[in-house]
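Usage example:
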Amino acid sequence: MPVQHPLTMAIAIAACVSAVSELQAQNGRAQGASAYDIRAADVERGRAVVVGAYAAPPGSEAGPGSPAISPQAGACFQCHGMDGKGDKAAVFPRLTDQTYKYLYDSLKDYASGGRQSAVMTPIAKALSDQQMRDVSAYYAAQKSAEYPPADQVDAQVLQHGAALAAIGNASRGVQGCINCHGPDGVGLPPTYPYLAGQYAAYLEAQMKAWKTGQRKGDGFGIMENIAKRLTDEEIRAVSNYYASIRPRSVTPEQAEFAAPMVPLPSVSAPSLGR
Amino acid sequence: MAVQMKPVDVALVGGGLTAAILGKELAEAGQTVVALERGGMRQTIPDFQSPTMHDELKFDVRHAYAQDVSVQTLTFRNFVGQQALPMRQLGSFLPAEGVGGGAVHWNGQTWRFQPEWFVLKSWVEERYGRGFLDEDVSIQDWGISYEELEPYYTFFEKVMGISGAPGNINGRIQVGGNPFEGPRSESYPNPPMKQSHSGYLFGQTAGQLGYHPFPVPSANVTRHYTNPFGAEIKPCMYCGFCDPFGCEHFAKASPQVCILPFALANKNFEMRTHSYVLRVEWDRKAKVATGVTYVDAQGRETFQPANMVVLCAFAHHNPILMLQSGIGQPYDPVTRTGTIGRNYTYQTMTGAEVFYDGEHHINPFMAAGALGTAIDDFNNGSFDHSGLGFIGGGYIAAYQTTGRPIYYHPVPEGTPRWGLGWKQAVRRHYNSTVSLSFHGSSIPHPNNYVGLDPTYTDAFGQRLGMLTYDFPYNDRLMARYITEKMAGIAQAMGGKRMSVGWLDDHYSIVPYQTTHNTGGAIMGADPKTSVVNRYLQSWDLHNLWVMGSSVFPQNAGYNPTDTVGALAYWAADAMIKQYLKNPGPLVQS
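Running the assembly step on the lines above writes:
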């Protein structure tokens, strides 16, 4: 009982080829290999954006309805610092050494409205695509900034947060954060941002933004789904946990101890029976 | 004296995919069900969470989720007449151990068989004539048609949230799907995976050559999805740790994610772990199974009485259990009589690699078990075998399943096996190589079967199962023909160099090839040539059933899971709607 496959060859061939191309294109924001090529960005131009010394003031590109922003008012360093340290008290996130792709995506999401923020939306809208790339490359290139002391948090809250980070919550169907954000919250470049040392209030605000739909755009709705399954208490716990972690580092002082092996002094063989 | 357990309605041997399917359905039909699993319990949380889960050494190199061969293994030989020797390490295939079975650590490639596979013998005779094949090619019809199985394929794919591009909906060819598939009644429940760059390169070339590329249907689910039972499956993150790992994201369809929570919540169902089944007990006069004997977690021999026994163990384990229980007539390769162990088949795999030497960034670490672009132009029903001297076929795919550091290091032929030269080659080729694979069918041959070993025993003192297998001439011809086609595509893909892995030697149990073992307790319409009827019910004992790929009369050029799942739902339907109302043979022999 043969089953015929009615093939209209020419049409099917053309259709299949174009379908595969479409599948490439459907890949959300990653539409071309060059979209995330950091070589298209320039750290020094980024520094100019950060200090507000634009070649073309971003306020001049503001669309209808958006107030023009003066270069100084939109200067990144005023809130995020030149080193990207941010401001813990004012809930401005740490950007130091964050991944280029994540920063660039964030700016695009602020500009498109996928991510809503009274402060960042107008600034992002005022930036050109090139300026977004440059400023992202600048902060991605900042390798160190001091960490303010973490808040004093009840040890049980930290313990709760650590458990969520490591294995999630089985009853709510939430997987551990560690699966994507890496051990100790170091991140998984280029897609997944680091969480270690990020400010608790900022992390908490972002989780709540995912939960309420004010933040979208991770491509799969995965953070939105996770945030919606978590209680506010769990969000607070896991935010404080990640804020309390400092990335592992090898300081120059420690490195000096890695001295070459010195041979042991020779000793005479002990006599048997003594 | 064996420990005696309280009788149950149904004893399931094994705790994997088919046991989860039957456990849930039969418990909901009011039956008391116990699943006897030789391994332990495991769940997405905490067992599959990273970084513990991403331990290549433990799970891939040391096979943490596979059968413990120090307890029980198989002996192997290529030919009747050779001395079979025990497999003291796993190699060619990896039978699973633990709740969820192989459907925990599978890749998720979820293919339907083309309609021709189910009626292979009559199809070949009708299309090519009776004398087309050598009489040693002992292909058979399944006793079931694709059309009968189609609704069960559809249901299983909904349970698992399969993500793909349909190629044929009710006879209408669909753009972007597999035009050679059998008609499906509806689309996949989820859209296909985002295709990898390797798949893109393969698809472009294959399309230019006149073939029909499409995304491989996947159980790595592509979006938030709720299955018909209410199970929530999450989207795949393309982390590249599918096989042989559990999925940390609830994103790869498995019994744990899709089915088991609903079975375990039913008071009629019990998953009894660390229970190693030794044999099925049966009444020689009444010709019914009375239960199963197993060794429990404390090492005690235990008898579980049951009204119905279902074998849900690994493919060759099911016929081995029947042989150890003395059920049915063992297959004899010399006289070619008997049925238990008959028509053991495998899968015929070859590969090719295209080395771009840095010209493309493939990013193999952005991967998933079923992330692939395939063509089905060389599966059995897709092309004309006239004058070729063989039957069968398979699909060709560019899979991007993983870029893991221990596992994945493609290097051209002639590269040193270790040392500086090897390291330099890995560095050069890791990120710019595309691997193609041919996933070919396997035709039964009278030499190839599952029996009991005359010499070696397992930890319980029972005779080991014995596998006799070599690639039949038919399959070697078939593999050569299609590997040539694959090499042609690889050549046209424009790499700096390429390598082709031909099938040019006897089957070896040592290097990993695939875990797709099939046959040994095959289904069919005639009790003389099959072990179970079209409902997977034993011809010998009407209350004994066999699940899984054990029942395939021959293996198709596809991965078996979709068909295993569909057949389990088909059998469950027959049990509940027919058998339980009036226990007895559903097909008269």
